[in-house]
Specification:
Blueprint: H1 10-21, H2 53-69, H3 93-96, H4 128-132, H5 137-146, H6 152-156, E1 188-196, E2 210-215, E3 221-226, E4 230-235, E5 240-246, E6 265-269, E7 274-279, E8 284-289, E9 294-299, E10 304-307, E11 319-324, E12 329-335, E13 342-349, E14 363-366, E15 372-377, E16 394-399, E17 412-414, E18 426-433, E19 436-442, E20 446-452, E21 458-464, E22 469-476, E23 481-488, E24 491-494, E25 500-505, E26 512-517, E27 523-528, E28 545-550, E29 556-561, E30 566-573
Antiparallel strand pairs: 1-30, 2-3, 3-4, 4-5, 6-7, 7-8, 8-9, 10-11, 11-12, 12-13, 14-15, 15-16, 16-17, 18-19, 19-22, 20-21, 22-23, 24-25, 25-26, 26-27, 28-29, 29-30
Amino acid sequence: MCTLDVNMDIANLEDTIMEMAFSPAASPDLDTHQAVIPWPTLEGEATYIRPSQEFLEQRRSATARNSVAHPGRRLSIASSAHTRSSSCASSTTSHMLGTSPFPAPLKPLPPVPASVRTSQRTSSQPSSCDKSSLDMDRLSHASSTTSSNLSRASMQSFSVRPPVPRRPPEHLRPSLPSSPDTRRLYPLEIVYWKQLAGAEKRKSGKTNMVHYLDISTKASTVATKHGNSVIKFWEVSSGDLVCTVKISAYTEAHCRSRDYLIRSHLILSETNHLAAMATRFGRTIEIWDWKTNKRLQVIDDVDRWVAGRFETHDVGWSPLVAYRGKDALIDLFTATPQKKPYVKVRTIDVRKAGLPFTPQYPELALSSTSPLLVAAAGPRPPRAGHPPPDRETMLVTWDITDFREVSNAPDRVVRPWQHKELETALPCNLTAYGDLILSIWIPSGYRTVTKHNARGEVEYTLAPTPVPFRYVLVWDLSENSTRTYGIPNTTSCISPDCRFVAYSQVAERRSKIAILDAQSGEEVWSAGGEGNLKSLDQFGDLSKVTDLAFSADGRFLVVGEVNGNTSVYDVRESAL
């Protein structure tokens, strides 16, 4: 970087100022050798365009013609960041004649900042030359003290464009439109296949009702929860009942919802005939061998849990995750071929994870394609006498590749504040597959009303509010972006491969069962709806539907009914 000579003529001065005007501005708070990246630039090096010598020669010729018509025009070089067309204005007639009406500066002008791409400095402390270029506005101030004949307007034109503000965090930006899915969507056809007749004639009502469904990885076994304490295992190919397991349950069973978040059961291994079941008050997990009808292991004090499916112990490790709300701990167990199928190998202390707040009773999920643990937590329910919850929605991921005690720190955290529809919502379904994490959120049926009493004090009361929709939140890890779309507030599910979202809606003359593209929310198949109730013949009365579940590959849709029966439908994709 060199210093301009005091006797430099105005032509060279203009060239230098043009370089400065097109160079990136420096900020006193930042290292002068770090480029300020504008928002649209997502990756790669920042690019700044410098005028070529040919461009400058053409500009001088144009200004010469212009100065003849306007001999009184003074030197003015604008450098607005928003008006590129006015970056260079005409110079005076005297400049074109080789003389200047202004005296030469008494002191050298500040040096021109070095090119961002050629600088190799890594020190955070600027040199003496760098300090002089930290703020280009100082150029006007320094020059005005050395030349009293120079006008204020001319000096203000020397300041360059301000730096573009830093790109905000992804979770503070508005949702971007969903990108096209790389997997082509084909028209779907849903065909009834068979029924797993679980209804018992001597029982009726809630005793027969299917409250929860789970399908094995190979889609050859289905487990259904009936009443409070009965879990039945079915062979899908034959439709036969394999066995019935009776558990101890001290709470009334319900379908999963905002008010009932107990995960009933999960098929762990079809080969080893292992299943995990929530028993007693829903805070105890029991591992059963359903073929021998024996209980193998008990894990107590579990408020939320999830488990990975496995068929062999030879590939990786198959975790079972248990969240304990009292101490905010997440215990990780791994499957073993020992007498007790699971042994604890790692604990994540959520309070030491460095999160903005400690989530209470989060929904858990394990990715079926990578060693990733996901937790989704919503705000506490609105309460009378308390202010409404504020920004208490959060999703967190942990890399659990290593089962040893390595770190409590999460892999990623997102707080989707921009989605106002989630302010009071709780997650009731969470699925992770590949780069996608999908969750279904149900808003609260009450909202907090703020008012002032006669003494001027703030009072918080509750008012009922309708909840016509629940919301699907799509977290795309590849883009680090989130977006939402609404579905009717009714029975719904997400396919394990994150391709589909299904729901069954009951409404007067508008009952409907539909399958949506999970990423965009676009409807890809439906039956029923206004004027199309005839298409519901193969599904029967949708008011009897209690639960929905997809197979792991999305090829089967299983529907549980209030009468205890379970229907299996074939999801066919037809080529265009």
